[in-house]
Amino acid sequence: MASVALQFIPPDEEDLVSLLIYEGPAATGPFSLIETVTAIGTYPEYIDKYTTDLASNAADWFTIQWEDSKGAQTPLTAAIQGGTGTLIDKIVTRVLERDRTLDRRVVSQEAEAAIQQALGENVDPYDPTLVTSISYRKLGGLVYLTMARSYIVAALSTTSEAVSSATMGLVSFKQSSGTNVSRDVESLIDLANRELGISASFVMILADIEECTYPTYDHSRLVSGYVTIDS
What we know:
The chain contains five helices and twelve strands. Helices cover 29% and strands 29% of the residues. By secondary structure, the chain is an alpha+beta fold. Helix 1 packs across helix 2 and helix 4 packs antiparallel against helix 5. It has a four-stranded antiparallel sheet. A four-stranded antiparallel sheet has the order 3-2-7-8, with no helix packed on it. A two-stranded antiparallel sheet has the order 4-5. It folds into two domains: 98 residues, Immunoglobulin-like (Sandwich); 110 residues, no CATH class.
């Protein structure tokens, strides 16, 4: 048996009770259930990583799905090979290394959009081949672009009672006093555009924002399957 560490983005659903892990010999399967995990945390703080010790082969392919209390299951995620990750995984990891105050789920969602913004709308952000085909320079650009988008969302989402005016580069908004407003979003976007070879500028003017409520939808994805132990 082998141990494989999996990272994923949990879905935004309140009634989940278990995580099902599948293993197969190829990206297209066939897949067999190897473990059912019930210690998944509670909404909205579900686990976003898990190490299975029940893999038959660390080089196999792995996929997951979630199950709620009524037995309904989400679709299987795109398969990830053991020992590999996705471009999403790399971007999120590097963004959080630079600022751990950002919400991992928000960063993951903004990374999806940043990839398609930079590489094209027909690109699948979870395509495992992207991580090996992109240059380090473009990877850095995607990290900066994702950070900028995440800061904008954080500014829009504030609901603190203590509100004061603040400006991040070209982004004008109302910001809670408890949040650091010194981040220069304009500089991040400029740096991202330079690294990605994008000449367009990004301008947003948002005024008198007091509270915003966003619709939620399922972003559940398996983003990596790192081998940690062979036994």
